[in-house]
Design a protein that fits this description.
Layout lengths: L9 E4 L2 H12 L7 H23 L2 H4 L5 E7 L4 E6 L6 H9 L6 H10 L5 H8 L10 E9 L7 E5 L4 E6 L9 E8 L9 H11 L6 E5 L7 E4 L14 H12 L7 E7 L5 E7 L15 E6 L2 E4 L13 E6 L8 H6 L1 H24 L1 H15 L1 H5 L4 H7 L1 E4 L7 E2 H6 L7 E6 L3 H5 L5 H5 L5 E3 L4 H7 L2 E2 L2 E5 L24 H13 L6 E4 L8 E4 L7 H9 L10 E4 L4 H8 L4 H18 L7 H17 L1
Parallel strand pairs: 2-8, 12-14, 17-18, 17-20, 21-23
Antiparallel strand pairs: 1-6, 2-3, 3-7, 4-5, 4-7, 5-6, 8-9, 10-11, 11-14, 12-13, 15-16, 15-18, 19-20, 22-23
Main location: cytoplasm
Family: Belongs to the heat shock protein 90 family.
Pfam family, one: HATPase_c_3
Length: 628
Amino acid sequence: MTTTVEQTAENHVFEADVARLLHMMVHSVYSDKGVFLRELISNGADACEKLRYEAIETPSLLAADPESRITLRLDEERRQLVVEDNGIGMRRDEMIEALGTIARSGTRAFMERIAENKAAEGAQLIGQFGVGFYSCFMVAEHVDVISRRAGSEEAWKWSSDGKGSYSVEAANLVEAPPRGTRIVLHLMEDAKTYTSRWTVERIVKEQSGHVPVAIRIVDKPDGEPVQITDGTALWTKSKSEVSKEDYTDFYRGLSGQYDEPALTVHFRAEGRHEYTALAFVPGTQPFDMFDPERKGRMKLYVKRVFITDDAELMPRYLRFVRGLIDTADLPLNVSREMIQESPILAAIRKGVTNRVITAVEKLADGEPETYLKFWENFGPVLKEGIYEDYERRAQLMALARFHTSASPEGHRSLAEYVKDAKEGQDAIYYLAGGSLDQLKASPQLEGFRARGIEVLLLTDSVDSFWVVNAPEFEGKAFKSITQGTADLAQFPRLDNQTPPEQDSAGLATFIGFAREKLAGQVADVRASDRLTESAVCLVAPEDGYDRQMEKILQNAGRLQGATKPILEINLAHPVIKAIAAVEDDASYQEDATFLLLDQARILDGERPQDPRKFAQRLARVFERSVRS
């Protein structure tokens, strides 16, 4: 066999995002640089699992060395730390793809966040964004990666100092691992503590103690390997054998995050289908929670062999859940098509989903303050299930929490809303919009607030969808206060004031005048019982979409042309009375009428339809007021 390959090293330049990321890592100060070791061990464990999967069809890949392992070699004198696995390894093109680019999404978001946050938060962000291999440049002035793909006689060496470029060349076959990847870190002077066995072993046990691959350590160049973790899969143990710290450690390695799980669900199902599930609800929002593809992050194992992380093992509204499912009911060579169509996985999916939602319900009932933190993180996603998951709609609606006009800074459940509803109130009123401050200042809210009628303040885009699909809650239908008539006459105002007379000749004439002038822009002009402070507001017709839903659909290009709104006028407002009283100046009344419509648009978060005409009308009204 030829032991060396004569080939000139190829030099490459990192992609722009990678170069920026490396620069930030090398020149930033982190509170816990040791996170790099967890990332490298996690990559090594993934490589071992990929090999086990490929060996299902090609057993010869494992024949000479069937036991997966990760070996850490320490050399204090040479200031080196080596992380080696006997996993799948890499070919030349795979090495360039894996180490020259960042394939995982979120890189740019990571760099923006790290630039905005103080240095002490850096390690948390590394874990959150999973930048993986590149974290080693926090401690290494130079890195060599030597890898041999399982079943291949060729080996390749990748080298870089993390300053913008890297080289790839054929490796010495004698020095290369028989299979797998060896990462040699030439440590910086201030990072030589990572050649200390005590330091390295502590980090491994704290952060990677439960990866499903045994980890060994060699603390001297001529030393013997000592096993420091046994590679026993944590999920195969009973809950009584696993501590909270163990779960946290496993969660961090599994999810690539650095926070603590808010909820842990670990159980073994027996009976018609047998499987083990270990699921975590993160303590903070994962960076990819609002990824448009809405993919889940649960891993599928069959008899402890990793199969895929691309199976739909949880509904998409629970995509923030991290974890795994291990079953013996599927064949090891399960195909992607079988995964998609498998009734076994459908049953497992249902069972795990029910257990996770039950755990969330227990949290809501037993620890309401902790639950509110969960809701603030994941409520916008969980509400997607109200319109997607009919079977669990009632459960999800009971879990929902809302800001309301009665508690704008706090949270209320629908059950609390219904309990405190006014006598004779047959609807759950809501107001949807872009921000809480905007909703609290909305003119449509005035009449409800004046009568002590609570209104849900909905600020998430998903809210406009689920309220349409959820027909009712405990017998009360959902009704937007920006659509149709308010029907507030049956509820007395808290200040005992009576509604203004709506049959005044001058006011009735003005409404007819406004209706005629605005006929091309509004569906109707009418007196309002929902306004108490503002002069005007816009509402949607009874049929169709409410104001916010229409805006969302228009912005998404899913609605051709807007429905004409209805302009409601507060007959008790002094401005309206003053305009109606100017019966001898039709041009002034016309300008004032169009200005009232534009004022209503502005209050609704829109711009005047024609800014130039708006300015001209405003100037003429100012001029008349000065003359008079």
